[in-house]
Amino acid sequence: MTSSTTVRSPLRLYGRDAELATLEGLLELLRRGDGGALVLAAPPGLGRTALLRAAAEAHRDRGPVLYATATGAMRAVPGGGVGALLGSVAAGSDPLGPLAAGRAAAGPSPAAPPGADPRGPSAAGPAVTGLPSSARPPVISPDALLGRLRELSVGRPLLVCVDDAHAWDPASRDALALVARGLGPGSRILVLLTATDSTAFAGLPTLQPAPLDEGAAGALLDRLTSGTEGLDPVVRAELLREAAGNPRLLAGLAGRLTPDQLAGRTPLPFPLPGGEAVLAAHAERLDGLPDRTRALLLLAAAAQEHEPDGAGADALLLLRAGTRSGLPRTFLDRALFGTSVTGSILQRAGSRVHFTHRLVARAVLHHAPWPHRRAAHELLATLLTEAAPAPPSAAPPPGTAPASPVPLAALVQRACAAPGPDAVLAARIEAAAVAPFPHAERSAALARAAQLSTEPASRAARFAGAAEQAGLAGDPCLARALLARAGPRTVGAAGPGGDPGQGLAPYVHGMLALRSGPAADAHEALLASAGLLAPHDPRRALDALLGAAEAAWAAGDALGYLDAMNRLARSPVDPDLEHYRAGMCAVLEGRTAKGHALLRPCLDPAGAPGAPAALLRSGVAALVLGDVAAACRAGARALAAVRTRGPDALLPQALEHLAYAELRAGRHAGARAHALEGLHAARRTGQPNSSAHLHAVLALAASVEGPAEACAAHAEAALAGAGPHGLAQAGTLATWARARADLASGRPGEAAARLAPLVGTGPGRGHFAVRTLAVPCWVEAAVLAGRLPEESGELHATVDEFASWTARTADPGAPAQLARCRALLAPADAADARYAEALDHHGRAGGDFERARTQLLYGQWLRRRRRTREARGPLRDALVAFQRCSARAWAERAAGELRAAGEPVAERRDAPGEPLAALTPQQQRIARCVAEGATNREVALRLSLSPRTVDHHLRNVFAALGIRSRTELARLLSP
Asked: How does strand 189-195 pair with strand 36-41?
């Protein structure tokens, strides 16, 4: 017997660390003589067999193992299950048999034959056979079973493993359950059972392995495809989506694809093969249910076909369908609205009915006889048509299709009942899949229409349309999978008349790349698609050009932005959009006054009220004008419009625009709240580019409110996303945020080093629309860091550029920041007046944070000129304002300056027992700066002291702490 009890397997069980730890704990207790029981309850394919085998493998060197796998045939033989279990002792063979432990929770390895049982050779019957099949074992009482198990546990603890125990005969199940309930401390027997659910073993502890999360499923898929040439990202996403966290299903799907299909060189088959075994295992569970229960499950599964993925089925529709098909009303009421009679297969959430596991619904449809399935779909189509309101007699609103006499859901149900391709029905579905139906519902309908299509061009166009709607619904993974089904398109393949859908797939590719790919790729793809779409679909062509312009803006490509916007001039556009286009082009071309005049009407768009895209453009125009209050109003209206009208894919952008406008307005807390919500929305809808921009906004907010660690984390996340995708705007904002946090912490040298490339003219120049905003921070950092006199020419030139921008913008804070920059660069006899001018501008503009920064710099300048009494007023005002803004690091900096000016300020002292508790406040500040790696000169600049004073205090710090070097101090203060 070995001393280790770690549950192990020759191959890794992906995503099962928690379950393995639980088993490890039980085996450790068993080794000490304390037994017990555990039921591993999970649907087929989630790895319960692999976990059971891992436990058996871990224990077999420490004691005997009884291992049996139940089969369906055992249900008909009373006592057969217990007989097979105890028969393994009589057989005297290895209780684990051919464990095939390589078939881990992941299912079969890539080399497994397509028809092999993923659970290994022993899955077909007991791991060890005992009694001959012709013998009819006697029914064994629980007491006799317990006595026999106790005999086997003499000397060494016994592990009893029963796989698929739900398939045992009732007598054996009841006997084993009674025995397991009586086990506990001192019993020296551990019973581990696996079952599809714990219903037959009520009262026993249960562990329910969940579907694998995305990370674990992805790692498993990487292992399964490690011998191939490479896995296409779209194929990867589709496999993970289809498997829904079921490792056995994932292994089956990946094992049936060819290398070319895995690499994305050839389209994926539809539906994906390889899931038949898992679906059959799920369907086997349904065989023992009453006929009326199976009929209701078929209706529930069929009713989900016209709904978006995960939406479930309408309970009232199921009630009507069940009544029409002859099911008793009392049964339907209990199944749909009361105590479940479906074996925990269905669950209700409000007015919706869901399958507890999505694979069960697929199994129900997959294994139902075609006539029954077709009848269910036809019945649902009839009921949906009967319940549809009569079409209005008035003409439909512009931009919407006439109401169909048959609702979209009914058409989709008829499509499910169609025996083969049906071009007429496909065209009817396509015509009906328009607003006001939700984007997800339109996507599902168009995908169904594509499957019915008889012409390759129509099929591809409908799959592309379904992908577009899936993207708007916030599901880019599904959108890419639908695009892959569209297959390659050849320009001109549709004949001399052209193909109206020819540019749709490139357009969808470009819009997806805009949110989740390199900005340059999105720009080029959207420009190309605009040219293809223009003759047939001017609305989408216009959206493609606007998307191309947005991609160029994000990348900091001013020329690319102008190119896309100038192409809009060749297309008919509404007056508001033309004002926006002409105004933005004029501003970027240097005709600022003309551009501002054109943009001002955009602040209150006269188009469709509440149109999210128009409101977002209004917010951009307001920011270009410098009217931050108008930008906040437009951002709030755009957010409200997206929340009420959609699309879901636009929610991260609406929150980003509002958060950035609030930052510009000094509303940092609101900006942080909206940016955090936007970040969650971007992650949910698969938009990493939006995540990068929102991380940059959060970094800027944290550079004010702190902590510095949050600012650094958000800035690093923004830069990690901005770099590979060429998002210059996000990168510039993130770098500016890090520099501002450096200033708050008293590190002007680092801040100046970060900002110098952004505001300069070299290759590291920042985004054209953002770099000017960082100029005041760079001037402050450069001056506080002691910029050499010969370098002042560059500073003055940059301030002159900022002055030119200030003259053109309506930003109320710009004049104050300009005066502050000039005060920092002014000679001593002129600085006083410059600071007074800056504070006067702040008084008119408002904004606590920027005013407090000016007051801090003014007070610091006064104190350095030994005008300490005068310095206390602005420093005190700065401290109070920073505290009001929750700008903690800035408040600490102001408090330090105020103390140095001779005014006592409450400060957090290290608690007794902490390393610096014995030091004075000044010594604590110096010690922390030195521990961070600052030199004496840098500490002196940061704290407005002389280097000699820093040296004096540092010697006292060393003496008080009993150390001799900066290295020891850093080690002492390290976390």
From this structure: parallel
